[in-house]
Design goal:
Blueprint lengths: L2 H18 L3 H24 L6 H14 L6 E3 L1 H12 L7 E5 L5 E6 L4 H5 L6 E5 L2 E2 L5 H8 L6 E7 L6 E7 L8 E8 L4 E6 L6 H14 L4 E5 L8 H11 L3 E8 L6 E5 L10 E5 L6 H11 L4 E4 L7 E7 L5 E10 L24 E2 L4 H21 L15 H8 L8 H18 L1
Parallel strand pairs: 9-10, 10-13, 13-14, 14-17
Antiparallel strand pairs: 1-16, 2-3, 4-5, 4-6, 6-7, 8-9, 11-12, 11-16, 15-16
Helix pairs in contact: 1-2, 7-8, 8-9
């Protein structure tokens, strides 16, 4: 594309903006901005030390523009779109981590999924992924990161992480695998005497609601009087699945709503009486690594006063992305709406949001966790998974590599370590037992 053609493209863009920009002052401002853009492009084309490809310049401009919005809005080239279709329709290998960009645009692990290559390798919630295959990830986009981390099952990828929970930098070589996660785990009678049950949901997938139905039915058959629903480190998943889970506990009313600038982005998801569980006392465990779908469930239960929320403030990730088609086979992935709880509370945390602002789900009963507690919880979940596989021959036997490269020292301490006390779970069970006592009066 010659300079004259380049200027023509920019001029057409200016005319389009002038048509949609409201008011003369806004139109003048838009014109000035595009005039500057054309000038910058001309200067780069004429004076940069080496010739620069036009497509590279425009691609950089598109990506830079969307990077200023949020981590989830992205410009997709035709090649990106084709790869996305392959990933959606075919089988691909991954590590089993949910990632985001934090306020400083640092690639961050929300949580590794249980039983996946990432968890087996020792990736922890909150880890900063600072390198992928030896290359710094600063200013990387989410799509670029996903492309680098995914690959054929059986192939390896090397990442360097800084563990938020310990501050330690560690390089891990992980073998990609097809990610298959059991959504509902660890269903049990947590307190057999008080008949308080426990169920943990790892993520929300197509089968989650059915798995939860089976788990709760089993516990009810055993005489369950109250339930602890554990959504800690649940990064979300399918919206319909999260809505279906919330619907099991709520008989009627709004579960979640979406609101955007346009009328067609306003939606409400309503609860139905059919399939609702009995009205037993309920406590929901959440943490700073509970995101998206788990926040929708917790927010609905809290607003409907259906149960107690116990733990820490949630992550604050609840926005809607729409795929908009462009000429030439390119597409735009753009944030067009946000999720709100039944009472209209905003769940999503903006990049520049402060702690005192409204975002995420705040627990009714706050239980603080130290870094050591979080690491111990990771080991506890892993050990639970091992015990599950021993009891259920249908489950695959999990590998047991050390959580970190200090695994040998950890093995020496294994026999002498104190029994893990899950403070959040203890508080939730105590609260439910108190409710049961009051109900019997």
């Amino acid at each position: 594309m010659r300079l004259r053609e380049l200027a023509l493209v920019a001029a057409v863009a200016v005319l389009v903006i002038l048509q949609v920009a409201p008011g003369a002052e806004k139109r003048d401002e838009s014109y000035a901005n595009f005039k500057t853009l054309v000038t910058v492009l001309e200067q780069v084309k004429r004076n940069y030390v080496v010739p620069v490809d036009d497509e590279k310049l425009f691609l950089g401009a598109y990506k830079g523009m969307l990077a200023e919005l949020d981590p989830y809005s992205q410009f997709m080239t035709r090649e990106d779109v084709e790869q996305l279709e392959v990933d959606t329709e075919g089988e691909f290998g991954g590590l089993g981590i949910e990632i985001t960009l934090d306020q400083n645009r640092i690639l961050t692990v929300i949580t590794p999924l249980e039983g996946t290559p990432a968890m087996k390798a020792g990736v922890l919630p909150g880890d900063r992924v600072v390198e992928i295959e030896g290359k710094n990830t600063y200013n990387i986009t989410l799509m670029e990161a996903v492309k680098k981390l995914r690959g054929k099952p059986g192939t390896k990828v090397t990442i360097t992480v800084v563990h938020q929970l310990t501050g330690k930098r560690e390089t891990l070589t992980i073998t990609r695998d097809v990610i298959k996660v059991r959504s509902v785990r660890a269903a049990r009678m947590q307190d057999p005497e008080a008949k308080v049950g426990y169920v943990r949901i790892n993520n929300f997938q197509r089968t989650t609601a059915d798995e939860l139905d089976a788990a709760v039915k089993k516990l009810l058959d055993e005489g369950m009087q109250a339930l602890v629903l554990d959504l800690r480190r649940n990064p979300g998943g399918l919206l319909d699945s999260a809505v279906a889970v919330a619907d099991r506990f709520i008989e009627k009313g709004v579960i979640v709503s979406t609101k955007g600038r346009s009328a067609d982005m306003v939606h409400q998801f309503e609860a139905r009486k059919e399939g609702t569980f009995p009205d037993f006392p309920l406590a929901v465990l959440v943490s700073g690594y509970s995101a998206s779908g788990s926040e929708i469930v917790a927010g609905a239960i809290q607003d409907h006063r259906r149960g107690l929320i116990v733990g820490q403030r949630t992550f604050g990730k609840a926005s809607v992305q729409s795929i908009l088609s462009l000429e030439g086979g390119c597409k735009l992935r753009l944030t067009t709406a946000r999720y709100y709880t039944p009472n209209g509370r905003l769940i999503h945390r903006e990049i520049d949001a402060k702690d005192e602002e409204a975002w995420g789900i705040r627990p009714d009963i706050e239980v603080k966790m130290t870094q050591e507690d979080e690491v111990a919880l990771s080991e506890h979940f892993r050990d639970e998974r091992v015990q599950e596989s021993i009891k259920d021959p249908k489950l695959p036997k999990p590998e047991l590599p050390p959580l970190t490269d200090e695994g040998e020292k950890r093995k020496d301490k294994e026999a002498n370590k104190k029994e893990f006390v899950d403070a959040c779970l203890v508080r939730a069970v105590d609260a439910l037992k108190a409710v049961l006592v009051v109900q019997k009066r």
